[in-house]
Design brief:
The complex is a heterodimer of chains A (229) and B (297). With 229 residues, chain A is an all-alpha fold. Chain A has a domain at 22-178: MetI-like fold (Orthogonal Bundle). Chain A contains nine helices and no strands. In chain A, helix 4 (69-83) packs across helix 5. Chain A starts with a helix and ends with a helix. The model of chain A has no long low-confidence stretch (mean pLDDT 92). Chain B is built from ten helices and no strands. Chain B has helices at 12-42, 48-55, 57-93, 98-113, 116-130, 137-163, 167-175, 180-211, 222-233, 236-265. The radius of gyration of chain B is 24 Å and the shape is flat. Mean pLDDT of chain B is 87; it is low at 282-297. Classes of the chains: A mainly alpha (229), B mainly alpha (297). The interface between A and B is large, with 74 and 69 residues.
């Protein structure tokens, strides 16, 4: 038993498992930041009364929500970098990392947009009518009545999108980010097939540890902040 | 009255503003599209020499269509398997036996937290060890990983579908003398299934998209066929665009079906039809099940 544990310890020590997780966390952080900005802009376009902007927002969402992330990631490397020769950093690794972040952001912005829109949709029309009735004009009504309720309604779907983004950051493997978790796990399994179960357990538990708190926190927040109707 | 919660029915002045914004927005959008096309043209990417091979009959007959067929095959197996898995574990999570509820809860939460790609890589390694002669281990790994993940999502849909029913449905079942299990099976579940049908159709979109992950473990699906085509013809941008368009059209069709279904079915259930979000975890509805049993562990 001790032999087994020390063997497992040396085996895991030979690979940078924590570094791999740190890469995915960084991919998630930057991807989420850009996706939030882009997705909010798209949501504003889709809820605006201006038809051309609505159309652009809807087209973006329909295109990128329905494309497999693997294709977007492959496209970032093979289309954007190899073919169009758009380089985002001088050294190879940062370049792949940034391409992967952009790919993640482009894909998830569509879901951020829909999350925010579904938040706005949770606000009943009567709230807007009541705001008008007490004499608030557009900006005060939006700032004081509608948007605070909309943000609360958007927390749960945004949390789900963040969890999906964290898990989808493994698809950065398709954008040649070969030091992230799924690629590291693949290499470890290929060279050490006798530790197959242990390797999977380590990575799976790593994700459970990362995902569950986000889920618990966003569910707790969305329930605590929920507008009782 | 306008249908938007943020904007009133516009008066003459706002109508003028909206018209101006509309024209300006359209011009900016067209300018961006035009700029992209000019940039692509400057790099020679609009040339028919590159698009032609991506659209040729030979490419479709020998690469893209067989790839698409494999994508659909994996998706079909995965969907059927996920529905079975989802029903079993969804009912398990609503069971009145604490142990069954706990075990099903742990399994479902675990499967939902682990990235599908990690499961595919693991099962690919596992089936390689277990069945040395298996030719199709990539296919089996893709299908099993998709079943475990999407089945868990469907299990959650079953649970929230039952949770979203009015409390009276379960109470009525108990009042006429049915047991908890009978109430679940003959009153709540049928209505919950109708309510979750649109979300299940949306889940097919997730399965189709995730099947493209199979390319990373060597399953010959549509994206992999595309990779083979552009490796030969040297036109990744064009081939990947064509492959993406195929996925987009398929998935948009499914989304339309899901939307129609949810409208059609709203009279057939006491709950509200759930539509999926297309990203895997549909917004989990914190539900209280109709018969007062705790659905949450």
């Amino acid at each position: 038993m001790n032999d087994y544990l020390s063997g497992l310890g040396t085996y895991l020590g030979r690979y940078d498992v924590l570094g791999a997780f740190w890469t995915n966390i960084q991919l998630t952080f930057w991807g989420a930041l850009i996706a939030l900005v882009l997705g909010t802009a798209l949501a504003l376009m889709r809820i605006s009364p201006i038809a051309s902007l609505q159309w652009v927002g809807a087209a973006y969402v329909n295109i990128f929500r329905n494309t497999p992330l693997t294709i977007i990631m492959t496209f970032m490397v093979m289309g954007v970098w190899t073919t169009l020769q758009i380089q985002l950093a001088d050294d190879f690794n940062s370049n792949f990392f940034r391409l992967a972040v952009i790919g993640l952001a482009i894909y998830h912005a569509a879901f951020v947009c829909e999350s925010i829109r579904s938040g706005v949709n949770t606000v009943p029309l009567g709230q807007a009518e009541a705001a008008r009735a007490i004499g608030l004009s557009f900006l005060p009504a939006a700032r004081l009545i509608i948007l605070p309720q909309a943000f609360r309604g958007a927390i749960a779907p945004l949390g789900n999108t963040l969890i999906a983004l964290l898990k989808n950051s493994t698809v950065a493997a398709a954008a040649s980010v070969s030091w992230e978790t799924s690629s590291t796990m693949k290499t470890m399994i290929e060279f050490n097939p006798n530790y197959l179960w242990e390797t999977f357990a380590v990575f799976a538990i790593g994700y459970v540890i990362l995902v569950i708190p986000i889920g618990v926190l966003t569910t707790w927040m969305s329930q605590r902040l929920a507008v009782k109707r | 009255m306008s249908s938007s919660v943020l904007f009133d029915a516009p008066g003459p002045r706002s109508r003028a503003w909206i018209l101006g914004g509309n024209v300006l927005g359209a011009l900016v959008a067209l300018a961006v599209i035009g700029w992209v096309l000019v940039q692509l043209d400057a790099k020679g990417q609009l040339s028919w020499d590159l698009w032609g091979p991506a659209l040729s009959a030979r490419t479709w007959e020998f690469y893209l269509l067989p790839g698409l067929l494999n994508t659909l095959r994996a998706a079909a197996f995965a969907i059927v398997g996920s529905i079975v898995f989802g029903l079993v574990f969804g009912m398990g999570r609503l069971s009145h036996i604490t142990l069954v509820r706990r075990v099903c809860g742990v399994v479902v939460e675990f499967m939902r937290a682990v990235p599908v790609l990690l499961m595919m890589v693991f099962f690919y390694g596992l089936f390689g060890q277990l069945f040395r002669g298996l030719d199709d281990k990539a296919f089996v790994a893709v299908v099993v990983a998709l079943i475990l993940y999407n089945g868990s999502v469907i299990a959650e849909l079953v649970r929230s579908g039952v949770g979203n029913l009015p409390r009276g449905q379960g109470e009525a079942g108990l009042a006429i003398g049915l047991t908890g299990g009978q109430t679940l099976r003959s009153i709540q579940l049928p209505q919950a299934l109708v309510a979750m049908l649109p979300a299940m159709v949306s889940q097919i979109v997730v399965v189709l998209k995730d099947s493209a992950l199979g390319q990373l473990i060597g399953y010959p699906e549509l994206l992999r066929s595309g990779v083979i085509v552009y490796s030969g013809d040297g036109n990744p941008l064009q081939v990947l665009t064509v492959v993406a368009v195929v996925f987009i059209l398929l998935n948009m069709l499914l989304t339309v079906v899901a939307h129609r279904l949810s409208k059609l079915l709203s009279s057939r259930t006491a709950g509200t039809p759930l539509e999926g979000t297309g990203i895997g975890n549909p917004t989990a509805v914190a539900g209280e099940p109709g018969d007062g049993r705790t659905a949450r562990d």
